[in-house]
Design goal:
It holds the Pfam family ADH_Fe_C. One of its GO terms (biological process) is catechol-containing compound metabolic process. Belongs to the intradiol ring-cleavage dioxygenase family. It comes from Actinocrispum wychmicini. With about 650 residues, the chain is α/β, with parallel strands linked by helices. The chain has three domains: about 150 residues, Rossmann fold; about 230 residues, Dehydroquinate synthase-like - alpha domain (Dehydroquinate synthase-like, alpha domain), CATH 1.20.1090.10; about 210 residues, Sandwich (Protocatechuate 3,4-Dioxygenase, subunit A). It contains 19 helices and 19 strands. The strands form five sheets. A six-stranded parallel beta sheet has the order 1-8-5-4-2-3, sandwiched between helices. A five-stranded mixed beta sheet has the order 11-10-15-16-17, with no helix packed on it. Strands 12-9-19-18 form a four-stranded mixed beta sheet, with no helix packed on it. A hairpin with a 6-residue loop joins β15 and β16. The longest helix has 23 residues. The radius of gyration is 37 Å and the shape is elongated. Bound molecules: benzoic acid (BEZ) and fe (iii) ion. The site of fe (iii) ion has 6 residues, from β15.
Length: about 650
């Protein structure tokens, strides 16, 4: 037929491919392990080293009889070379001429590691669905680094699948190991090396897994379901050994190798999300997978299957730290590799974030899309407002995602904030209290203060400041006879060169001996323990008050409830507030803390700074203005304020 006569509508007709099958003998039979000796002899071997994880070793020992000369049970995950060295010593010492590897991926990999070094023939007897026995690939770890190599010497010569050995594989492991096999099949279908042979193997594997796994979950001893899944494991393992894998395997390899994530569980969590990532780039493959699974949408269908099987669905539940995701994304994209959709660090981070929360894949990432939409809605806002609101939206959305916020938690937060608003009034500011107890006020304060390091540190305003306090002359007693240890305050205000700042307004406020501000005491007649002074020509002011005591912040509202619910105390370290203002100077809001006072290390609003802890010196004898008191205290302090607005 001439080229121009080719039937264009049927592209399969034109398909060309290459397919390399591994030269292994595969025995698939219930009870096959009883005849293991025959396979050993068929290989011309007479001395067997048995590698096993312990389980089913007796059945194999019986079958091997005198052929068995040594055992090694030390195989561990990721095939560290030190362990391989120990097994090598056993192989040498026993002069074994054949290795039987009985177990899961770790044991089978150890057999491969021995074969790579010695070319000793191997018989693999898998007891899980990982599929490693069907691949000429070996992953080893040396000095904490995992490397992978491929060689014909690595492929086991014989694989014996005995379904009876899988009957005791715990359901949870059956599920994750089965999804691991599913991942091999899925990635084979969109592999750059995909061919009609592996396609058929992969699709058959998917069909058997979709049928068998739910049956195993409802009856773990169902031999025909176990048989289906074991065959699927072999078919999928053959795919894995024949064609290259894509993003999913790369990602799981990174998460296992660099973050210690468990192998099969990680495969289980990640698979639906990588499928969703690749879906638009491989629609035909997804359609075939969906058909084989018997669902409409392949990524969603795989997710639903895992949920139905009770498998893990989030990296979070596997112990992955959210903060490690960007590094994992970077590592997984450091080198290019074939994948239906271009692999970008951003894209992979999205996949990881979705896998971390475990939401059902939506055929694209739903939350990031929504976030982008809300962020864009502020595009035309005035510049600063735009920055503040867009970042707030990103932060809040990311918070909801990272914490997997439930609707009832969201509603509790709304109720909490509503109560915070309802209890607030002209004299009670519960929102400031909330900001204070969450440390937000102190963060803003630090940001502000760090811009002028030569000035006196600032400290939170607190909710008890009342604008426009009564103006008072120097030397007055702002305690107006309230009980307490008399305190003489003698302070100066200077600029950053030490020049006195005259005529500055200095507002002062503090709590009484019982820890209450006047605004908290409705029976009080007018303001007390608060005043406005003006500095004299020397930048100075003096007044009497009482020694402040530690006090609890108001705890009868939602903030108090939060502190109680979280086991935090409510106390502030003893202090006097100052607000210093003068046109042309930056207003300084700060507090002086009593050296030696309680709660300096655990102030509930995080307001204490070293530079503000001052000696309130005990005094006997005459007072500065001749006032007659027995014992009293005195505090001297120089506040430094900076010019500016
Ligand atoms: C205060 O010092 O007045 C205060 C500051 C923050 C929260 C509660 C009280
Ligand atoms: Fe206070």
């Amino acid at each position: 037929m001439q080229a121009d006569q080719e039937p264009r509508s049927d592209t399969r007709w034109m398909t060309s491919f290459s397919y390399t099958a591994g030269p292994a003998r595969v025995v698939f039979a219930p009870g096959a392990v009883r005849h293991l000796d025959l396979d050993v002899r068929r290989l011309g071997a007479t001395r067997v080293l048995l590698l096993s994880g312990g389980r089913h070793a007796e059945a194999v020992e019986q079958a091997l009889g005198p052929l068995l000369v040594a055992r090694f049970e030390g195989a561990v995950m990721h095939t560290p070379v030190e362990v391989t060295e120990q097994a090598m010593a056993e192989l040498r010492d026993s002069a074994a001429d054949c290795v039987v590897a009985l177990g899961g991926g770790s044991v089978i990999n150890l057999g491969k590691a021995l074969a790579l070094r010695t070319d000793v023939p191997q018989i693999a007897v898998p007891t899980t669905y990982a599929g490693s026995e069907a691949t000429p690939v070996l992953g080893e770890t040396a000095d904490g680094r995992k490397t992978t190599q491929r060689s014909p010497a690595i492929l086991p010569e014989v694989v014996v699948y005995d379904v009876y050995l899988t009957l005791t594989l715990p359901v949870a492991m059956s599920v994750t190991s089965g999804v691991n096999a599913l991942a091999h099949a899925v990635e084979a279908l969109y592999s750059a090396d995909a061919n009609p042979i592996t396609d058929q193997l992969a699709l058959e594997a998917i069909r058997r897994l979709a049928r068998g796994l739910p049956q195993i979950v409802s009856d773990p001893s169902d031999v025909s379901a176990r048989s289906d899944v074991l065959q699927a494991a072999w078919l999928a393992g053959t795919c894995l050994g024949t064609v290259g894998m894509g993003l999913h395997h790369k990602l799981c390899h990174t998460l296992g190798g660099s973050f210690g994530m468990p192998h099969a569980e990680t495969h289980t969590v990640v698979l639906p999300h990588v499928m969703a990532y690749n879906a638009a780039a491989a629609p035909d493959v997804m359609r075939r997978i969906a058909e084989a699974l018997g669902v409409d949408d392949a990524p969603g269908g795989v997710h639903d299957l895992i949920v139905r099987l009770g498998g893990p669905t989030s990296l979070r539940e596997l112990g992955m730290a959210f903060d490690d995701l960007p590094r994992a994304a970077e590592l997984a994209t450091a080198q290019p590799y074939p994948n239906p959709r271009e692999v970008t660090a951003d894209g992979v981070l999205r996949v990881l974030e979705e896998a971390w929360t475990g939401e059902r894949p939506q055929g694209g990432s739903a939350v990031p899309k929504l976030t982008a939409q809300v962020v864009a809605s502020f595009d035309d806002a005035p510049p600063r407002l735009r920055v503040l609101l867009q970042d707030l939206v990103r932060t809040l959305h990311s918070y909801a995602v990272r914490t997997d916020l439930t609707e009832s938690e969201w509603l509790s937060a709304i109720t909490f904030l509503t109560r915070t608003g309802q209890i607030s009034s002209d004299t009670r500011q519960e929102f400031i209290l909330l900001s204070d107890t969450l440390g937000v006020s102190s963060v803003v304060d630090l940001l502000t203060n760090s811009r002028s390091p030569d000035t006196t540190p600032s400290a939170v305003l607190g909710p008890f400041y009342v604008d426009g306090p009564p103006a008072r002359p120097h030397g007055v007693d702002i305690a107006e006879g309230l009980p307490g240890v008399p305190l003489w305050v003698d302070v100066r205000i200077v600029d950053t060169h030490g020049t006195p700042v005259s005529d500055a307004t200095v507002d002062v406020w503090q709590a009484n001996e019982d820890g209450f501000y006047d605004v908290q005491l409705p029976d009080l007649d007018g303001p007390v323990l608060r005043a406005r002074f003006r500095t004299d020509a020397d930048g100075r002011l003096t007044f009497w008050t009482i020694l402040p005591a530690a006090y609890p912040i108001p705890d009868d509202g939602p903030v108090g409830a939060m502190l109680t619910a979280t086991g935090r105390h409510q106390f502030r370290a003893p202090h006097v507030h100052f607000m210093i203002a003068k046109p042309g100077f930056r207003t300084l809001v700060t507090q002086l803390f009593v050296q030696g006072g309680e709660y300096l290390d655990s102030d509930t609003v995080f307001g204490v700074k070293d530079g503000l802890i001052v000696d309130f010196v005990e005094q006997q004898g005459p007072t500065p203005d001749g006032r007659a008191v027995d014992s009293w205290r005195k505090v001297d302090f120089v506040f430094r304020v900076s010019q500016g607005v």
